Amino acid sequence: MKIGKASTELGRRNGIEKNRRSYSLDIDWHVHTTNSCDSKINPRDACVYAEIMGLKGICFTEHIDFDPRDTGYNWFHWNAYIKEMEATKQEHPGFVHTGFELNWQEKFSTGLLDFLDDKAVDLVLGSVHWLKSGHICQKSTFTSLSLDAFLDEWIHEALDLLNRDICHGFAHFDYFYLFGQEFYPNLKRDDIFYLTEPVIDAIIKHDVSLEINSRVLRKGLSEPCPSWRFIENYFKAGGRKVHIGSDSHSVGEIGFQFDAIRTRLATLLANCK
User: How far apart are CA 146 and CA 112, in angstroms?
Assistant: First the structure.
């Protein structure tokens, strides 16, 4: 598959380019099952728990990894996934949504685009996890890069993804701060918005939903990913589309802190009107 025109055609075929929509804040849009290498979640158990939590739905977004360095490489199998999703939908009608978390790397773009080509899901989340030096959750990734070099490479990958117009949402925006703060002591979370403005501009331009990810609240940070100041600046810049994802890998993590996040989002949106 050629890049450029072909990727636009891919967006049309998957209903991505013109079928933008808003995402209910009462749905957890980022949950992994055992169809991802690092999750213990059975989708039926997840649905039962989500219903008890008062959620209106759940989206099972599985890791799509094409980098051989990743433990998820060659883990995902589409036929097994969609069979399990169809069975779960029958047990929980109107509650289940399908999706991918596309771990984007320009180096593997041809394979990733070919993977997407014949598969229709409700939500394609784009994220940037891998750089040439390593994974953003590995401390060794940061030791060989200055902050400027890290941001340049991360921004390059994010823009390469967003400008192809193949994802509905963008996840893990400032997740790299969780591990990078140790190596970049001058990096402040409140500055990340300004340091990555080209990516925010592309998210708004391509009508992509910004994910408010609550996983970092379980990892020791006091604010979701991205931070509240970041989200406020995003709204002030004209961004409006957001969705909430717990990035769950075990059932008890589903919908984590969603009530508090919804309340804060409502206040921020009201102040930006």
Answer: 29
